[in-house]
Amino acid sequence: MSKKVLIIMDPIESINIKKDTTYQLILSAQEYGHEVFYLTPETLSVNPNGPVGEISKLIINAQENPFFEISNTKSCELSEFDYVLMRKDPPVDNNFIYITHILDSIDKKNTKVINSGFSLRNHNEKLITLNFPKHAPESLVTCNKREIEKFRDLHKNIILKPLNLMGGRSVYFLEERDKNFNVIFEEITNMGKNYILAQRYISEAVNGDVRIIVINGEVYKEAVIRKPNRNDHRSNLASGGTIEKYLLNKNEINICSEIANFLRNEKIYFAGIDMIGSKITEINITSPTCISEINNFHDINLGIKFWEKIDEFN
Length: 314
Fold this sequence. Notes:
By secondary structure, the chain is α+β, with helices and mostly antiparallel strands. Helix content is 26%, strand content 29%. The protein is globular. The model has no long low-confidence stretch (mean pLDDT 92).
């Protein structure tokens, strides 16, 4: 049965259709028979009738240039749609948080929001790993310089991450006697004002990190591994990493299944788990990626699987 799907995303003309997951979800929705609509976050507002925005009909024409067609733009209530997919990329700044509040005010009787505003607001994708201490590397959340120094002295080599960015941005590898420690601390914490996540460096990181897709509590064994180049510790594609085909082993599936059950109970229906060795380092819930790459390597269509499972969401 055809449904009306609203995609909230950054400007569509800015995406790379060869690897963008939102593009794959839109294309799959069309193939599945759904009507797709498009909204950029800056047009959102709330009036006495609820959340509204400047919404356009969207059609993807994969073989044409431009690859998209936008038409019939008008102000609509978000509750008119069966599904609302929040696909705006981080940073998770004040405006992002405000959008999550707007999403929570949508009438949920007829509209399913994926992932919900509450879930996005209450589960930071760096800090969510703290729920799984036996499956995550030793971690510290702080903005205190001395605490970071003690953590570094204990673990020798550590990773420092901001809590609100993506794609490996401002992620630092700090060695035991790194002379850049002071400037790194000043930069990443804004002179001790902003909280960060420190994690013990996992030696298997030189082999890359695995991206695993979870949809409504189901873990897909078809995955990819992103590998760093010789000049950078980060394996993110945005940071110059490369990507290869990967199949999860039994232990990895068991670990991710435990996490997937937690995600489903928290109404996080779409997520990307990052795993180095046997440790979970992040759980991306704001705008999970790598569906296109997984599809290409494994000759599957996770976009169609997404829409097949969406009616199970509750």
